[in-house]
Design brief:
Largest sheet: 9 strands, mixed
Helix content: 25-40%
Mean pLDDT: 85
Structural class: alpha/beta
Distance between the termini: 48 Å
Low-confidence stretches: 1-34, 235-244
Number of strands: 12
Radius of gyration: 22 Å
Shape: globular
Order of helices and strands: HEHEHEEHEHHEEHHHEHEEEEHH
Number of helices: 12
């Protein structure tokens, strides 16, 4: 079996991810300690940031959204006031304790400077870290792995899902696994006869055999950890049903991070945010997605325990939605949005950025929230302060990115 056939078989069986390193062969690193963690959650479909963090002090917001605006604080089903100007959608109530504790912050009027309204292109640019350039090889999280100190292992970067996303693509090995209810399901390669055949085929000391052996060992270790977590959760739940969807994945990811100090970067994504029709206000389609999002984030933070102190969680989406609601009681593809930052070292309880306002003259192209903060500036702040990257490393991870913004000072303390 040649290398191409081996990769195809391994990918089909879900064994592990092995990526070529230049032209010198194949490598899967050994275990190594990692203290500071970064988790990125991508909301695919363009979430309506103006309904997530509501500018309730702006009368223009209510004029432009007669059926989908979130009521002002203090009234029935009103927004959860944050700072007297902005408020959180009531469906996000589960994360309010994090705001009150000072470990949750938002960066409003933030996003990609590229003007595209294409989901595919905008997601590609945010995952590559190079807006407007489709030729960038790999994603910024993989480049981040390349500059982090220590030995690289397939579990230093973990992607939750069936395939490696654009943001993690590149030369550094990354583990991808599903953490849903079937996370620990047996695959064809787990059958004794198949496992034994592969073990015989790749029992040598050549680079390809070593890659197989280490990848196989990593998978077995992850499965053992998941089995142990399932047993612990059954005891802790005391007969109650397990949480569904995102909360379940968040709970298991937190458990893996707690158990495995080599996991330093993790990526998850959630879909369903493209609300062109019947978006809803306090209740409805959007609220139905925001509630499990908040529950999952709360579960993730609780599950991380003491590890949360050294973890930063970023929540991002490809672009925002139109300022005005459309004729279908929804919103269309927009521009500016809001980014979230959570973590034990995040200086929270603050809305960062430079709010541009919602008057017609201040809207982007007369229809969208303008962008006053490049999303890469948020990434740069976190990478510089939380992960201690120097200028050269930052330029490698985010080539061509603008410099750090003084408006973000304190967002991610060292």
């Amino acid at each position: 079996m040649n290398r191409r056939e081996f990769l195809k078989t391994a990918a089909t069986l879900g064994l592990f991810t092995v990526i070529p390193l230049g032209t010198g062969g194949w490598a899967v690193g050994g275990p190594g300690p990692a203290r500071k963690r970064l988790i990125v959650l991508f909301l695919r479909g363009a979430v309506d940031g103006l309904s997530v963090v509501v500018p309730h002090f702006e009368s223009a917001y209510y004029d432009a959204r007669p059926t989908i605006a979130i009521p002002r604080p203090g009234g029935t089903d009103g927004v959860l006031d944050l700072d007297g100007r902005f408020g959180l959608h009531p469906a996000l109530e589960a994360v309010m304790p994090l705001w009150q504790q000072g470990s949750l912050a938002f960066v409003h009027a933030c996003g990609s400077p590229d003007a595209t309204r294409s989901h595919f292109d905008a997601q590609d640019y945010m995952e590559s870290g190079t807006p407007g350039d489709k030729n960038t090889p790999g994603g910024w999280l993989n480049r981040l792995l390349a500059v982090l100190p220590g030995t690289h292992t397939p579990t230093q970067g973990v992607s939750v899902g069936e395939t490696i996303p654009r943001i993690f693509s590149g030369p550094i090995p990354v583990a991808n696994l599903s953490l849903g209810k079937d996370a620990a399901r047996k695959l064809p390669l787990d059958r004794p006869a198949i496992k034994e055949a592969f073990a015989r085929m790749y029992q040598g000391t050549d680079p390809l055999s070593v890659a197989y052996q280490k990848g196989s060992a990593q998978r077995e270790e992850l499965l053992k950890q998941l089995d142990a977590l399932d047993e612990e959760q059954k005891i802790a739940d005391h007969g109650a049903p397990s949480p569904l969807g995102f909360s379940l994945e968040a709970q298991k990811l937190a458990g893996l991070i707690q158990r495995d100090p080599s996991i330093q970067l993790a990526f998850m994504d959630l879909g369903g945010w493209d609300t062109h029709v019947n978006q809803g206000a306090v209740h409805g389609q959007l609220a139905g997605h925001l509630r499990p999002l908040a529950d999952g984030l709360s579960t993730l933070v609780k599950g991380l325990g003491d590890t949360y102190q050294d973890t930063t969680i970023l929540v991002m989406s490809e672009f925002g939605r139109t300022f005005r609601e459309n004729g279908n009681a929804g919103t269309d593809h927009g521009h500016g949005n809001v980014m979230w930052a959570l973590g034990g070292r995040v200086q929270g309880k603050r809305i960062y950025g430079d709010w541009p306002g919602l008057t017609d003259s201040r809207l982007y192209q007369g229809r969208d929230l303008a962008i006053t903060m490049d999303f890469r500036q948020v990434l740069t702040e976190v990478l510089a302060e939380h992960l201690a990257l120097n200028e050269q490393q930052l330029a490698t991870v985010l080539p061509g990115a603008p410099g750090r913004s003084p408006l973000l000072q304190g967002l991610a303390k060292a």
